[in-house]
Design brief:
By secondary structure, this protein is mostly helical. It has two domains: about 1-45, Arc Repressor Mutant, subunit A (Orthogonal Bundle); about 55-185, Tetracycline Repressor, domain 2. The protein contains ten helices and no strands. Helix 5 (about 75-90) packs across helix 6, helix 5 runs antiparallel to helix 8 and helix 8 (about 120-135) packs across helix 9. The protein is elongated, with a radius of gyration of 18 Å. The termini are far apart.
Length: about 190
C-alpha cells in the first residue's frame, strides 16, 4: 500500500475515534511506522491532511447520497431520501461530519461560487435533485433553494444530534420530512 494512503488511513482512524483534535502528525506517524517528518513528503501540513480527509468524506457522502436518492419515486421523495442519507452519515461518522461541515478549513468549498461551478460533490447531487423538484425554476432559484434546504437540514441534524430536539429518531425524521416539504413548497 502506498505511504500516502497508509497515512490517510491512520489519520482517518484517529479522526473517527477521537475527532479532529486527535489527528496529529506525531500520532499518525506512530500508527504508520514512519517519522512525523516523513508525512510532510505527502501532505504539506496538518491542515492539508485534514483537508484530504474532508474531501474524501465529501466524495463518500456524495456517493451515499446518490445511492439513497435513486430509490425515490418522485423528486420530493428523492430530496427526503438525500437528507435521510445526510442524517445517517452524521450519525455514522460524527467526527468526519464535524470536520466536513462545522470547521473552517483552508480551501473549503464555498457557496455560491463552488456550487455554481460544480466543484462540490455533495452539492452537485443535491442541486441536481433540487432542480428535478423545481423543474421550472431558474438556475439562481435552484441554487438558493438548495442552500436553504441544506442549511435547514444541517441545522436540524445538528440540533437533534446535540440533544436540542427531544424526539426519538423516528419522530425526528418525521418532523424533519414535514419541515423539509414546507421549505421546498416555499420555492414552488
Amino acid at each position: 500500500m502506498e505511504t500516502a494512503t497508509r497515512i490517510r488511513d491512520a489519520a482517518r482512524a484517529l479522526l473517527d475515534r477521537d475527532g479532529p483534535e486527535a489527528v496529529s502528525m506525531r500520532e499518525v506517524a506512530a500508527k504508520v511506522g514512519i517519522t512525523a517528518m516523513a508525512i510532510y513528503r505527502h501532505y504539506r501540513d496538518r491542515d492539508a491532511l485534514l483537508g484530504a480527509l474532508a474531501d474524501e468524506g465529501f466524495t463518500t457522502l456524495a456517493a451515499e447520497l446518490e445511492r439513497s436518492g435513486r430509490r425515490a419515486r418522485s423528486p420530493v421523495a428523492e430530496l427526503a431520501r438525500l437528507f435521510d442519507g445526510y442524517l445517517a452519515y452524521a450519525e455514522q461518522y460524527p467526527h468526519r461530519f464535524e470536520l466536513m461541515f462545522a470547521r473552517a478549513r483552508p480551501g473549503a468549498r464555498q457557496w455560491p461560487v463552488d456550487f455554481r461551478a460544480g466543484r462540490s460533490p455533495t452539492g452537485n447531487v443535491m442541486m441536481a435533485a433540487v432542480g428535478r423538484a423545481l423543474p421550472r425554476a431558474s438556475a439562481t432559484t435552484v441554487l438558493e433553494a438548495g442552500l436553504a434546504l441544506w442549511a435547514h437540514a444541517h441545522g436540524m441534524v445538528t440540533l437533534w444530534r446535540g440533544g436540542r430536539i427531544g424526539l426519538p429518531r423516528a419522530k425526528f425524521v418525521a418532523l424533519f420530512r414535514r419541515s423539509l416539504a414546507k421549505v421546498l413548497d416555499a420555492y414552488r
